Amino acid sequence: MTEFAYAGRTLAGERVAGTRSAASVDAAVAALRGERIVVTRIETAAEPRKQRRGEAGKAVAPRILALFTRQLAVMTGAGLPLVECLDILGRQEEDPRLRATIVQVRAHVEGGESLAAAMARYPATFDALYTNMIAAGEAGGVLDAILKRLAAYIEATVRIRARVKSALTYPVAVVVISALVVGAILWKVVPTFTSLFEGLGAVLPLPTRIVIAASDGVAVAGPVLLLAAAAGALAMRRFYGTPRGRRIVDGAALRLPAVGGILRKVQVARFCRTLGTLLSSGVPILDGLEITARTSGNAVIADAVLAARGSIEAGESVAGPLEQTQVFPAMATRMISVGEATGALDAMLEKVARFYDEEVALAVGNLLTLLEPVMIAVLGVVVGGIVFAMYMPIFDLISRLGV
After folding, report:
1. Which long-range contacts does 128-137 make (Cβ < 8 Å, 24+ apart)?
2. 343-372 b/e with 16+ CB inside 10 Å = b?
3. Across residues 373-397, what is the average pLDDT?
4. In angstroms, how far is CA 363 from the centroid of its own chain?
5. Residue 60 in contact with residue 125, Cβ under 8 Å?
6. Residue 398's CB: how many other CB atoms inside 10 A?
7. pTM beyond 0.85
8. Looking at 22-31, 88-97, 151-160, 367-376, which range is the least confident one?
9. Contact (Cβ atoms closer than 8 angstroms) between residue 153 and residue 277
10. What is the rounded distance in angstroms from the CA atom of residue 177 to the CA atom of residue 154?
11. DSSP structure class, residue 56
12. Looking at the predicted structure, is the pLDDT value of residue 23 above 60?
């Protein structure tokens, strides 16, 4: 039995509120209806209303979702009823967004919905990939195995994202710190030297005049540049929110020197892992391709997958249409072709995903090895150039005094 908090009105129009124990929401409503109460609101009393309504359905961190999925797999594999599993996980979940969503999913399951249908109500938390795999697991009676596979998929995705983010942290930090250092020198240090030179009547060489002009520009146009940068970022975000803008930006990202190749490998690994996980879970190939396109995260890849899906639906193989899109590397399509020929496409897709994960790690490591000395050298040249330019008039003054 579950405790439900309700609000409603009697037939006479009087407002009433309270709690009622029942096996499900429908049972509680039916019991109240038998007491001539028209229910206007009913919800599980275990969670505060504001928290449940304000947090339910919001996106959660992938690592938190992976942990929930693995815990649910273990509990269902142990033979616990699904409603009881959701109740236990909802009570012990620390993340308020996921906890609120679990409570709502549990209420829908108690009301007679399947787990996949209940989760599909909250697409920000449970995407199409997640819900379709759950539906396949429920239909085949292997929900615990599907949940374990789904947890492994999410964990692998988290690992590759963390690897790329950690690799990008250093160069981004160096660029930001360098910009702050150069900005501080131009804003605070250079004006001090400028006043000194004016007082001494020093002759300023060209490099010094350039640095002083840059300093004056930073002091005068700094706020304008910050506002322009903020406006540009907002405009880019809105542009990326449109289908055309997303295709243009995603396509440009894949064509970037050095970085574009890494992004392409990341997308290929994600495509192979997603499609392989869906196929091994019993999802049909055409449905799997559609789900993979929707969850790809790159508009160019999504368009290529949907184009290939149309050809596959017309009777072609999987590898051929993917190769014709000219988005997927030849090595990937050849391995997919071998997987089709041997009847082990899902296993081959997983191997391709692992291969490209390793390729991404190697490429990122090589890029960092190249970028580190280049960035340090550029920073040294910029800062050293500014310092040298500001000391040139001083050298000139010292030489005059020596004469």
Report:
1. 128/291, 128/294, 128/295, 129/274, 129/277, 129/278, 129/291, 129/292, 129/295, 132/278, 132/283, 132/287, 132/291, 133/277, 133/278, 133/281, 133/283, 136/278, 136/281, 136/282, 136/283, 137/281, 137/282
2. eebbebbbebbebbbebbbebbeebeeebe
3. 82
4. 21
5. yes
6. 11
7. no
8. 22-31
9. yes
10. 33
11. T
12. yes
Name the burial class of residue 324, with classes exposed (0-12), middle (13-18) and buried (19+) by CB atoms within 10 angstroms of its CB: middle
- Sequence letter at residue 399: S
- State the Cα angle at 240 between 237 and 244, rounded to 5°: 155
Rounded to the nearest integer, the mean pLDDT of the chain is: 82
- Mean pLDDT of all residues in 290-299: 82
* CA atoms of 151 and 312, how far apart (whole Å): 29
Between CA 141 and CA 134 the distance in angstroms is 10
* CA-based torsion, 322, 328, 331, 335: positive or negative: negative
**Of 118, 141, 96, which is closest to residue 130 (Cα–Cα)?**
118
- pLDDT at residue 68 tops 90: yes
Measured over the CA atoms of residue 363, residue 347, residue 116 and residue 86, the dihedral's sign is negative
Q: For residues 49 and 6, what is the distance between their CA atoms, to the nearest angstrom?
A: 11
Q: What letter would DSSP give residue 36?
A: T
CB–CB of 287/132 below 8 Å?
Answer: yes
